[in-house]
Amino acid sequence: MGTPYEKDVVAWAMEQAALLRAGNLSALDIEHVAEEIEDVGKSEKRELASRMAVLLSHLLKWLHQPGQRCSSWSRSLKEQRKAIAAAMRQAPSLKASLGDTDWLAGVWADAVTKAVDETGLDSFPEDCPWTMAQVLTEDFFPEA
Prior knowledge:
The protein has 5 helices and no strands. The protein has helices spanning 9-22, 30-64, 71-90, 101-119, 132-136. The termini are far apart. With 144 residues, it is mainly α. It has a domain at 43-136. Helix 2 packs antiparallel against helix 3 (71-90) and helix 2 crosses helix 4 (101-119).
């Protein structure tokens, strides 16, 4: 059968890819192949959530610490927005996450945790005060 999935996932993956390319479908480890394919999607969604949390936390810092605004914050906002846009161009189905209230609640909670850790402040809103369209707009910078 080749390398077991549990022993060496990298060697297993290379063998499975070779089997697919050779058209030897009956020799595939179908269950693990399916899991790995699903994990690719989950990984992309986790990356989007991580970038959104960073973006939102920086927007919170921008709003609540106007005296500490600096060019690195602006660059970070631009960088996160650019990476998010690129991710959604490469995987348009990720856009659905932006309308998923449970997903957004988790991302917002992560963003608030980051902002609290980085600022020491604890007076952030319970829910995101901005629309996703605002958050992702290049020239959006919240003001008090």
